Amino acid sequence: MASLQNGLIHWAGKAECGEIDIVQTNQFARIWIYSIMYGITLAIIITIPFTWCKPAKKKLDETLDEASLDHSQTALDAQNMSTAPDMEAAQRHLVRTSCTKDRKWYNPITTPGSVLSEVGGTGTELYFRMLRNFGFMYAYMAAFTAPIPAFSMVGDFLPDTGQFLAKTTIGNMGSYADATVVDPSERIVQIGCQGVGLSDMTHYFGWLDFIALLIFFSFVVYFRFRAIPKIAEQDEKEQITPKDFSVTIDCLPATIENHADYERLLNEHIASRLEYARSRLKEEHRPAHNVEVCEITLVRDYGGRLGEIRERANLQKSKEIAEAYENNEKAVEKLSAKLEALEEKLAERLKPDEELPVVRAFCILNCKADVALLLNDYRFADFSLFRLCQFSDRRFQGRKIRVRSAPEPTDILWENQDCSYGSRLMRKSLMLGIFILILLISLVTIYTVTVSGASTKEGSGLSYMGDAKCDPKDVPGDESYKCIAANTTDWNITYVEAEGGDILNCWCSTQGYSAVFADTDILSTCSPWLIGLAVAMGASTGASCCVVVINAVLQMVLIAMAEFEKPLSLTALNSSMMRKVFMAQTMNTGFILLFVNTNIQAIQDAVGDIPGIGPMLFNGSFDDVNRNWYTVVGTTLLTNMMLNAVTPAGVSCAKAFVLFAKRRFLKGGKKHQAELIELHTNPEFDIKGKYAQFLTTVFVTMMYSSGLPLMHMFGCGFMFCMYWADKFVLLWASKRPPNYDTTMARDASEYMLYVIPLHCIGAIFMYGQECVFPSKTLGGALGDVASQGAGYAPGILQNLGSRVSLESTWMIFLLFVLIVGAWVLWTVLWILGGTFGSLWDIVVATCCPAKPKVMDEEEVAALEKGQTSTKMGGSIDIAATMNWVAASEHIERTFPPASYKLERNPDMETIAHLLRPPNTPKSNPSSPGHPPPVSVGNALSSMDQPAQPAAGPPVSTAVAKGFLEALNSEYVLETGPQVGKFFEATPGVEDKLNSFEEQVRAAENKNAEIESIAKTWGMSWP
């Protein structure tokens, strides 16, 4: 008869002890002390280096360094019209388009995370902060839960299949004995000849997991609601970007009577609104800078053809490269045929750019205060009802317009700008249905592959104790052999060798992996079992590899789907990709293995009617998280996440080194400059894939970490490996990313809030399993309430009620209830915000209109000392201290471009000169610089004259405009030495512009000479 006393005798004999001492527990204290020391050491090793490496506060002269680079020359390198390879130009292009500052590369080791916002915007900085901070978090969680794997490793409750990771799970906790000897729920944790009842310890482990969960919850809440807004505000003040000086104007009239003067008329309208807005301010609140609209970029309606025109430019470039090689006629003919087919498709001629309909406009103002004034002037235009009642003097050409903050120039997807809202909505709806379909197909595929891999474990992976609460579920119709450990006690080598097959496998599995290798006779006898075990592990590994391949293919498909939705910005595109890839990878990685091995009748009944796949789902061997679950499912999950900790980082670094090798050894064989430019253009930093991988890792580790505590260490390893690998790849092997905002980081942190209830559910099922994790029922008033609730609960909920009323689970269940309640409240507030929130916004806009901020004395004193923050730690809004001329020079040096023009977009500039067909007329330049605006409409309508190199000013457009105005003031209006004052106010440009001043000074008709210079630069004057 099974009893604890029989169990103590059995365990004493197995350990060669006279008896098991259940009073003295000094050996247990030793493990607790070791675990605490390990946790403290881990936390110190992780935390101190990052604390020492905190960056010093920036000085203003570091932020506004006036050093100037010849950007005009490097910009033209990307558009080199020559076919002859120019290695110096290619290397200049590499430096300019990569993550550099003043032509110098950042050091991945010494560059602090706060500087990464200057490289790729706040969104890029937040990604690395998330990796670092969540690495800390997982290290602290691993430190607090260290006793759980420590005590698990001294147990032997799981079958010994030679898998070390299985020994770290809670399924291995306690000493094994047949169910005929002792009830498994009464087993002890044994160290030497000392023992403690497992049920007397499990509540401590439950509290450790609860503390770890609180750490996770605190990190996520802090990051979402404190860190992200704070970092975004700080970066907004410390960085100088075109967005600070710009607005987006939409709801514009598509065409007007004087359509060719659209830009000039809109310029005058915005300037008049700014004059009006300034007139309503007190004198001390008015901006010091002049009212000026520095640039207006009109977004034209190309009928969705810009993408096709861009494809045509790429084909033209490929054809030119093919023509540079001898004996390459077939490739040239093939590309020519494609080019001709595409030109036939584009045969319908568009009007010239100046005659095309206008969709929206990006407008750069002279100072940041004017942006605030203009947004305040049109604050009611955000509401459709109020826009209907817009005053006539706010309308443009009689059309009610809307003014909003502009995105960064690098965040604009130009080929999608003329896609209407209705079209984008229809595309999103269509892609949602296709996404669900593709996700189901991938789930079924991975499910089939995983089932095939799991089927090889039959007879070698499952061991039965003869106790229903500990053993896998008997599947109806499954007639395979059940290995019951109690039946093997009377078997010997002779018997099992004679029987072979399932009898041999069963006996060997009960002996255990260690015992088999310790005895040569047993090793010889069990060699077929070892071979079967190896095959099973290989099949499982193969199934995992198939999952990786399917995820990679699925990611490519989902990326294409996100592009089909035609978002207006790269941030929106990457957010859509991140969301889809994360959901698919998490389902494939974290849930499929669970679905394959789960067998719960209630769930089977619910999904059984699904056509085709319904009967296949939830038809596994486990109706609970029992003993064998940790051997079959838990070990596989741990193996996958152990590989996940290092594989993505290793792959990223390997790709970078392959890129360096190609650049080193293949550059000599290139025959065309475009090939060198392509070879010396780094790939994009795949931030949406990085965020998706990050979220998948967080979800899988948190879902299962209660029973698989080593998940915390693997999560920590992933975060720090990815932090350093991605930092190296970003700074040395990636194209400079767009200026991402906080959208992806905010979405990712919100998604992580949903993993907390999933962790609670997992913990309740794992810690409430009577066999694996026996725990005492909660006493006192809380225990009575839980018992009464369980008694009234129907069906399956009665089992749940008994699990949440245990000493090891009640606090986790309470947190689950609080989190779900908070989520419901949040959802209600979100719904109310969609209705009453707009009303509140109207009240705020009416009663509390925004005004330009005036610097206080503390900020002025800090600026005089060259500091970017006050004594109280507040950041100073640097962009608010300068006009657009000064800001544009800084932007061109640190984070170009300082323009919203299509040809200045990083994705367009290398092919901007190819957007016209080869025989489109262009002006012949007299000086190097940025190219003039590309006319895509003319690109399709002009087919007669030879191409000429593009022209442009040797400085930014804003500086060139200011220089022309200074020339006009000094030499035409004769108002004094305005050019000299301009050079003093704009350091670093005199050498580039001095020759043009000499031309004007020597000319008889000075006004005509200024107009000639402006025309040469591709600029309108006056």
General description of the model:
The chain is mainly alpha-helical and 1022 residues long. Helix content is 57%, strand content 4%. Helix 23 (627-665) packs parallel to helix 26. It is elongated, with a radius of gyration of 35 Å. It starts with a helix and ends in a 6-residue tail after the last helix. Mean pLDDT is 78; it is low at 60-76, 456-460, 792-796 and 916-951.
Outline of this structure?
The chain is mainly alpha-helical.
Low-confidence stretches: 60-76, 456-460, 792-796, 916-951
Multimeric state: single chain
Mean pLDDT: 78
Kindly report the spatial arrangement of strands forming the biggest sheet.
Answer: 6-7-5-8
Discrete helix count: 38
Helix content: 55-70%
What's the shape? elongated
Gap between N and C termini: 104 Å
Give me the secondary-structure category.
Answer: mainly alpha
Structure summary, number of beta strands: 8
Question: Rg, please?
Answer: 35 Å
Question: Main β-sheet: number of strands, strand sense, barrel status?
Answer: 4 strands, antiparallel
Q: Tell me the strand percentage band.
A: under 5%
